[in-house]
């Protein structure tokens, strides 16, 4: 079933990672995985541009079906492979609502993280606009307590919407891993999130897509003051 | 069925509008509609903060179920009221994939529009950073031809994924209406999108949520040069 699936992905991209977690959780580990180098601009290759005019990853193909928005890939995989692997979207309407809410809501973390990290990455430290950095740091610092509170409602060992791993976790865990990579002091500031991160990061689906280049490089300290 | 639904919304907010279009399309027009004033900061009222700690709209409640991310509201409504009103997400896997892809992809238009409009709205014209404006204008100008091309694949009179109105249209039409409100020369630059806009804007579900304050105010010319 997974033999007619191809995924183009980039190392360290949370959107790619969330799609890959869903692939693993749905038992589709045999798909064709094509790691592209951002440095060599392989995401702008003819092979990708032909099916994804944005020249971005993830670029996903299942037979003749192409889906390139990571949230859409996750939803598509869950709907298409409903009866195999982990159930990522519960049938119960109120539980489903909660999963959809938290799943979509993870985009807030990604946006706020991205605004700060990309700015620091692209701008020479001596040119940093401290007012801009203060604003963006505040936005991220106000985002994370929401998640800390969501998690604190459930018992130790739970996932972000309760006892089961869902689409919301597939999207949250790469976002958290990215924060840790950027040296956000998760453990000191957000103990529930830190404990969740420690627990979920070793899940096979999460490990299988762990960014290869993270294993032998230290990351940046862009978020140490959040 | 709609009597236990409440939606808090703001006039002119595309995320609110897309949720409202889905409510109408699913035959739920009898819901409790609470228009909040951004000017009076009613979106930060206790009533909303209690169920939506972000203090944002849309804030949606169906019985005890709360969903506040607009894309999640749309998906929830379609899944929960599957067999009534317009079918917004097709069952056929390849058609469903296309709808999910385009639905999520509309966020690109919103983000690129927002980056430009909010900057111009919040910054005095004499302080405008022309380099920043040029970058953001270019990003939006590169986004819209993708949609023009998507639409050109289908015959005259079609929707964004083919012959049926779907979630993707519910999300696209407010984004286009916002562009028009900001004086983007849609007709001159993107004839397929302009024709789509003219056709879909009069759909009852779209009209029912047309921002009230747009009816007697002219908008801004922030996008006239895109």
Automatic annotation (TrEMBL), chains A, B:
Pfam families: GST_C_3, GST_N_2
GO molecular function: glutathione transferase activity; maleylacetoacetate isomerase activity
GO biological process: glutathione metabolic process; L-phenylalanine catabolic process
Listed InterPro entries: Glutathione-S-Trfase_C-like (IPR010987), Glutathione-S-Trfase_C_sf (IPR036282), Glutathione_S-Trfase (IPR040079), Glutathione_S-Trfase_N (IPR004045), GST_C (IPR004046), Thioredoxin-like_sf (IPR036249)
Residue ranges of domain GST N-terminal in the record: 3-85
Domain GST C-terminal: start-end pairs: 92-222
GO cellular component, one term: mitochondrion
Listed name of the protein: GSTZ1 protein
Gene3D superfamilies: 1.20.1050.10, Glutaredoxin
Superkingdom field: Eukaryota
């Amino acid at each position: 079933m997974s033999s007619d699936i191809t995924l183009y992905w980039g190392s360290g991209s949370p959107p790619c990672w969330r799609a890959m977690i869903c692939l693993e959780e749905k038992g589709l580990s045999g798909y064709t995985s094509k790691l592209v180098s951002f440095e060599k601009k392989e995401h702008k290759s003819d092979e990708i541009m032909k099916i994804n005019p944005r020249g971005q990853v993830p670029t996903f193909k299942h037979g003749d079906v192409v889906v390139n928005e990571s949230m859409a890939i996750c939803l598509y995989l869950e709907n298409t492979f409903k009866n195999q692997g982990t159930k990522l979207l519960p049938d119960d309407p109120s539980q489903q609502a909660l999963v959809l809410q938290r799943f979509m809501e993870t985009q807030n973390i990604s946006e706020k993280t991205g605004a700060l990290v990309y700015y620091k990455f692209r701008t020479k430290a001596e040119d940093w606009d401290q007012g801009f950095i203060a604003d963006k740091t505040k936005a991220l610092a106000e985002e994370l307590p929401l998640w800390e509170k969501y998690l604190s409602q459930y018992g130790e060992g739970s996932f972000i919407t309760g006892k089961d791993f869902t689409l919301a976790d597939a999207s949250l865990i790469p976002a958290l891993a990215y924060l840790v990579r950027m040296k956000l002091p998760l453990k000191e500031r957000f103990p529930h999130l830190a404990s969740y991160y420690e627990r979920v990061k070793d899940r096979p689906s999460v490990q299988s897509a762990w960014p290869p280049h993270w294993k032998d490089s230290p990351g940046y300290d862009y978020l140490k003051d959040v």
